[in-house]
Amino acid sequence: MEEKILESMVSGFTKTLIEESKKILDNFVGVTSDEIKQYIGKDLKNYLNKHQEKYSHIKTLLRGNTPVFLYDIYFPAKLIDENGEIISTDSIRLLTKKYKYLTIIGDAGSGKSTLVKHLFLNTILEKNSIPILVELRYLNDFDSSFSLESYIKEICNSNKLQSNENILERFLENGKFTFFLDGFDELDQKTKKKTVKQLNDFIEKYTKNSYILTSRPYTNIEHLPLFINLEMKELSLENGEIKGFVYKQLGNEKELAEKAVKSIEQGEIQYIQSF
């Protein structure tokens, strides 16, 4: 994806959503046409622009402290199910159509966070739904009276998406959101237990939305009843994925990329390929 395309996609998405909202909010007491335009055309648009800019640029080990455009270095990640079927992540629409409640499991460094950024941006590009990224680790800092639902609505409020609670509630009921719940493994044990129950309660209340949860393995998140568990697929040398990844990272440094790939292909030490 080119950067100029990314910059223009928010306007296209909000225009589409305004049209769809007329049907969702038709004859809904307490909501005017001007409030819809304020909520979507201003508040939501500002939120999407801010987060599109935030998630479309990342720092990498190779580039130091200089942020780079995500799609200049992003190599398409794939997922794999328990039967070995490989799942594409190119389209959030196709992914959530098949897996409405999805857990993405992967070790540290497997690319979960980068994948979530891609899926967040792809949600806007495909005009699929309103993406909300929830960093679960912050739930550790709240007292026992604070709930996951409160936290999610606080995120909406901090981004002025709760300026009209009637619109927010109707959007939640009609499944206009995709929630990215990132970092379940970063919750402490007590908070994990409570969060699982509250997540199930939230989904039961707002069943039509899509939910994507990320975690490292061995956190017992695999046992969430509604969620399908998919793992991050490792890159393969045989089908050219490692080569493609190296060339993507090194950009215009083709000579260096060729040397790196040759070293990996000819190297007898297994950890080089793994790294």
Brief write-up:
This protein has 275 residues and is α/β, with parallel strands linked by helices. The chain has eleven helices and nine strands.
Provide keyphrases for this structure.
275 residues; alpha/beta; Rossmann fold; two-stranded antiparallel ribbon; 11 helices; globular
Detailed description of the structure:
It is a single chain. With 275 residues, the chain is α/β, with parallel strands linked by helices. The protein folds into two domains: 3-232, Rossmann fold (3-Layer(aba) Sandwich); 241-274, no CATH class. 49% of the residues lie in helices and 14% in strands. The protein has eleven helices and nine strands. The chain has a seven-stranded mixed sheet with strand order 4-3-9-5-8-7-6, with helices on both faces. It has a two-stranded antiparallel sheet with strand order 1-2. The protein starts with a helix and ends with a helix.
Which SSEs are present, and which pair or pack?
Layout: H1 3-24, H2 33-55, E1 57-58, E2 68-69, H3 70-73, E3 78-80, E4 86-88, H4 92-98, E5 101-105, H5 112-125, E6 130-135, H6 148-158, H7 165-173, E7 177-182, H8 189-205, E8 210-215, E9 228-232, H9 241-250, H10 254-266, H11 270-274
Parallel strand pairs: 5-8, 5-9, 6-7, 7-8
Antiparallel strand pairs: 1-2, 3-4, 3-9
